[in-house]
Amino acid sequence: MGTLVEELLARYREPVPLWINGAWAPSEAGGLLTVTNPATGAALATVHEARGEDIDRAVKAARGAFEGAWGKTSPAQRQRLLWRVAELLDQRRDELATVECLNNGKTLREAQKGDLPGCSEVFRYFSGWATKLHGETIPVEGEVLCYTQRAPVGVCGQIVPWNYPLLMACWKVAPALAAGNTVVLKPSEFTPLTALCLGELCKAAGIPDGVVNVVPGYGDVAGEALARHPDVDKVAFTGSPRTARRLLVASAETNLKKLSLELGGKSPMLVFPDADLDQAARWAQGGIFSNKGEVCSASSRLLCHASVKDALVAKLAEKARRMTVGDPLNVRTQLGALVSERQLNAVLGHIARATAEGARLVTGGQRDTEGDKARGFFLQPTIFEDVKPAMALAQEEVFGPVLAVLTFTDEDEAVRIANGTTYGLAAGVFTRDVARAHRVARRLQAGTVWVNMWNGFDAAAPFGGFRQSGWGREQGMHALELYTQARCVWVPTA
Ligand code: NAD
Q1: What's the rounded Cα separation, in Å, for the pair 318 and 297?
Q2: What pLDDT, in 10s, does the model give residues 379-412?
Q3: Most C-beta atoms within 10 A of its C-beta, which of 18, 23, 345, 364?
């Protein structure tokens, strides 16, 4: 390993405390989390574990900042501060990408070229919005001036997963701060390191203490405490539908805090007979195997017209077999390690079930234990064909590098299968027929539809799900709806 990595590991030799009120703060109960490097299975760092009393301290700090210094900060000041966070993220890009790679198992290249640029871009984008949020005057009856303001929601609990640890944190923190909220961010217990760096970076940028608090901990302890805290006004969550249901109950049983939810999907890529099959195979490979398939918008169902299925699967299987699986720090690696042994076993469980239900394995399907990989959580890129719409592999999110190939014979059937899950996050249409592309896009129950491409993201473009893929949209101007509320003011002028 290079010097930078050794320096980083040296930094993590002591347990990393929580980040509360602009300072490192030990957990009150004294619990510690061990964070693992999924590529080696070895401990990478220990981090203080937040429990109820720590969450309470963090919420108090966030409330204090909301009613104090942050509440008095002008939109123009917030704009400058968010821009500065973006600059600092760019300055530390290599270091943060390396930590992300070591902690998550994604390749260094993915972290450098995908995650980190997205982090600073989202701060830049929402920096601009800080000065552009305004209300309107309403022409009400009578001699009255009636106007609205866009008020912040207040203290926001933000619970993020392990697949894009820093990127998901930035997607949530940047719009919240632009609109004048304060946050208590709970990263995943598997991947808390870069989120803790974000707390420190926000302070270095000049953001007042207490505005951004970072409290790693277990979901059913720290996450639950945040979700049930009576002084948290809103919870923004990315993760599983199972946890989302817990958050709804917690909100209902406490203070009816607002919720926004991004819950993954089972996103279909529809390939029509007139599609460019080489192009479709390239996007399908990236769609299911990038970030080891641990992507909420993974193209996990490939819906092929029956006439092109064999040709497309042959191209894709060839690509999958040639992929380099291994050390995420190696620039030639294309598929890193799954995030944890638990996730690896969950994905192997999906593979076993697909086989038992009669799907045909085209390639992969095994844990990859070649050489040093035996220590880590690697899986061969996996493709199943002859998958039927009712099979678990066509219905359940796997969150791993496992593709289900299904076939259709006409457009109606394609749309019916595509819409035939409980999810609705993303979908794709591959065709050279422009009319068909737009017609099918309109019929797909999905928050994002890509035509002849996959995984297009931009800080300006809304992202979120139809149906059980979630509530609300992150990114773009739509995200501001999650973090503001209208205040209507009436003033008699007669
Ligand atoms: P999860 O929903 O349990 O974890 C996501 C986040 O929620 C983590 O920070 C976790 O600590 C927290 N959490 C867990 N239980 C909580 C609770 N009761 N209250 C508050 N917070 C809680 O997801 P997971 O178990 O890590 O992964 C399971 C599956 O979820 C994956 O296989 C995948 O299908 C899905 N997932 C989806 C996304 C996505 O981007 N939509 C991300 C991660 C996982």
Answers
A1: 23
A2: 999 999 999 999 999 999 999 999 999 999 999 9
A3: 18
- Structural domain tally of the chain? 2
156 and 220 assigned to the same domain: yes
Task: Verify that 219 and 347 share a domain, yes or no.
Answer: no
Distance CA 359, CA 351 (A): 9
Would you say 48 and 58 are in contact if contact means Cβ atoms under 8 Å apart?
A: no
Sheet holding 144-152, edge to edge: 137-138, 144-152, 484-492
- 8 A C-beta contact, residue 85 and residue 123: yes
State which ligand 1 atom lies nearest to the alpha carbon of 168: 40
**In a shared domain, residues 183 and 221:** yes
pLDDT of residue 3: 64
Residues 258, 380, single domain; the answer is no
What is the number of the ligand 1 atom nearest to the C-alpha of 264?
41
Q: Alpha-carbon distance 358 to 312, whole Å? A: 21
Percentage of the chain exceeding pLDDT 90: 97
Rounded to two decimals, the pTM is 0.97
| pLDDT of 285 over the 70 cut | yes
Query: Which among 171, 190, 240, 292 is the best mutation to test ligand 1's pocket, defined by most ligand atoms within 8 Å of the CB?
Result: 240
For residue 186, report the phi and psi dihedrals to the nearest 5 degrees: -110, 105
Q: What is the CATH number of the domain that holds 148?
A: 3.40.605.10
Q: Is 12 helix (H, G, I), strand (E, B) or coil?
A: coil
Tell me, yes or no, whether 484 lies in a domain: no
Residue pointed to by tokens 């697949």: 163
Read off the pLDDT of residues 168-214 as tens digits, 9 standing for 90 and up: 999 999 999 999 999 999 999 999 999 999 999 999 999 999 999 99
What is the CA(227)–ligand 1 centre distance, in A?
14
Same domain? 201 vs 241: yes
